Amino acid sequence: MSDITSKIKLSQLRALVAVAEQGNFSTAALHLEISQSAVSHAIAALEEDLGVVLLARGRYGAHPTPVGERIIAHARQVLQLLETMAKEANLEKGLHGGQVRIACFRSVATHILPAVIAQFRSNFPKIAITITEHYDYINVEQDLREGHADLGFTYLPASDEFETWELLRDDYIVLLPPTAPNITQEINWQQLAAYPLIVPSTNTCSIRIRNHLKFSDCPLNVAYEVREDSTIVSMVAQGLGAAILPRLAAEPVPRGLQACTLPTPLERVIGVAVLADTLQTPAVFAFLDVLKKSEQFILKAVV
Predict the structure, then answer these.
(1) 245-282 burial, b if ≥16 CB within 10 A, otherwise e?
(2) Domains and CATH numbers, the chain
(3) Which residue positions does the secretion signal occupy (predicted)?
């Protein structure tokens, strides 16, 4: 082993890959749950040991140098090998240990996972579960690709790189403010046009809703795009407009607000995904089995 390789630490490689993926030191520090100074020190020490500049620092963030790109690719391979080693160890431990890493978006984490996890823990109390929440399914799929999650909840259909199972179908609904006149279950476009619209700001939902509104036969005004589901519901409660969002994201609907179906139905198909052709541990298979048998919990969440 050379003097250089004996000095390289895994924490330095993790910091390097995180900065390359996040584009700056501060976001990488948040991702790794360490201080920004610790990330800066790790990168500086690695550059000193290797004798090359790995990241070009600038006003708009940090970007890999040409040699940095090559070394980052090797660092990713090292970290992936470590993940494979951990999976092999978990295979040996079977269902008496190990962990299941789940990536999901917030409405699933709130309304679906708690009941499923409770059932799973009653059967396999020694298996650890970690949950990473995202605002959009795109980040969920990225976690699966990069080996940060064993399974994830995403929208279907998904690309062929994933093996997927449909979990549920979630309708988009309209939430009307307390001052709205009583409307039957379905609102029409003319009635909806009377309100400033509040929609989710995540790219997937925003684009999907805006494209769907083209079915309208009258002009509609999207006045607000908001990331947090709870904030959207609170804005409707304050009479700032009507919201269009998935039913799971709106639940529980506060007293005084009306939930209506759209004039033209819109739904998102939610599924569970794992990376295709990837070795999964018994713990992951066990969790998937419990998930598939938990249909009654899932149906209660969307009724």
Answers:
(1) bbbbbbbeeeeebbbbbbbeebebebbbbbbeeeebbb
(2) 3-88 (1.10.10.10), 94-168+269-302 (3.40.190.10), 170-268 (3.40.190.10)
(3) none
User: Above pLDDT 90, what percent of the chain?
Assistant: 63
Residue 1 has pLDDT above 80, yes or no: no
Spatial neighbors of 239 by CB under 8 A, at least 6 apart, are: 177, 178, 179
| Full-model pTM | 0.68
Contact between 138 and 206 (Cβ < 8 Å): no
For residue 65, give the DSSP letter: -
Q: Tell me, what DSSP letter sits at residue 181?
A: P
Q: Interior CA angle at 189 toward 186 and 194, to 5°?
A: 105
Using one digit for the tens of pLDDT, what is the confidence trace for 40-84? Answer: 999 999 999 999 999 999 888 899 999 999 999 999 999 999 888
pLDDT tier, 298 (very low <50, low <70, confident <90, very high otherwise): low
Q: Which residues face 119 on adjacent strands? A: none
